[in-house]
Amino acid sequence: MNMDQLLEKKVKKGLYQTLVFFRVCYLDLFYGIDVTFTCIMIQILRKEFNLTFPYYTNISSIFLIGVIVGNFICAYFTFVGRKNMIMGFSLLAFLSQISISFSQYYNQIIFLRFLLGLALGSATPLPYTILAEIIEVRFKARFVYCLNFAYLTGKFYVIFLCFIFLKNFDEGNWRGLMLLSSLPLLISFISTITLKETSAFLLHKEMFIEAFEQINQECLQNNQTDLSLEEQEDIKQWILYQNENVKKSKNGIFSYKYAVKTIQLWSILVICNNQIIAIHLLVPLLLAQSNQTFRELLMIASFEAISIFIIYQTLDFRFWGGRRVVLLVTSSLTIIMNAYMYFYREDSIILGSMITQIVARNTLATTLVLTSLSYDTSIRTQGLGIAQGVGKIASIFCAPTFIYLNGIDPYLPFLYLGLLAVLQLFIVWTFNEN
Length: 434
What we know:
Layout: H1 3-11, H2 15-24, H3 26-48, H4 53-76, H5 82-102, H6 106-123, H7 125-133, H8 137-145, H9 147-165, E1 166-168, E2 171-172, H10 174-181, H11 183-192, H12 199-204, H13 208-221, H14 229-248, H15 259-289, H16 294-314, H17 323-344, H18 349-373, H19 377-393, H20 398-408, H21 412-429
Antiparallel strand pairs: 1-2
């Protein structure tokens, strides 16, 4: 009996999965807060500290460097336990966010932004890995994708805080806003205290006694029967067989079995991260230039909620959806909307940025789901952590590049992004989601 058969026939779906989800979702909730507010914070800090071009772009770049370092920590240090990593880095992120709100010097903010990025980069891939390990195959993609509802909740939360604390896109009490925005990180730390390692993690560590106790506990929570001795022996033999094969393949995600898939996923994540960072960086700037308000950000988030629900319904239904179909559609829309914003300029900024932001985020979310499902349990965290790290590496220089292009022509970055989206569409076309 392998893990998928175990989940389908014995553990099934129920209270256990729900409880785990609500213990690990708060990191994604905070990530929604951070990516929405960072672009606004940069504009405020530029005015408050009289920062020139390279200095205020460093606020974004140093955070990304921290995320990349954290992604590789996540990939290679999970032997300490995923629970311990989520707890520790949630606490570090919370303390960093609180400290930023009290910082009076630019250099302090830069250092704390690096720590915040490191903490989030180390911890945010782990919920994807954990959720992929606890649900049966037919619900797996949609269940993991549910983290995007937490991300979206974070966006709504911080936009409402913007209405309360900020006067506009470059003025207001950003310190008070940051204090309240750190609450999900504290909740993440507290909720993880009672989190237990998944049975899949324990089995692949060959901790069979602890693993079988955990499986029986999962079955109890879902009103299912315990494992029989025969079933335990079947699982044990399967795990030993799997681990033996893993030992023979020393290259992990870089082995021949995963090589093409890994390169395709990395390429999509690199292009998609460029798109997301550009939108989050440029949209508040363009909205401010066209005298728009936070209502437009709220409108964008509302339409993003609708798109997330639609993609949630399509991910596991091959008859009229599927992951590759979702990526083909989102890649095509990215090309169209970037061209629309480049040619129609100010008249396109609300509708264009709204659709592009929605499409880019859903492309990233779908790709992360595919990444979490593309590797075996023993290397899943490594595969997801490195993939996110590689995606962010190419994004380090995004802020300076896009702001430089914006200085030449405010809409020139969208032409560049449209060309990247053409390459993304070609990569997705060659992708085999099976």
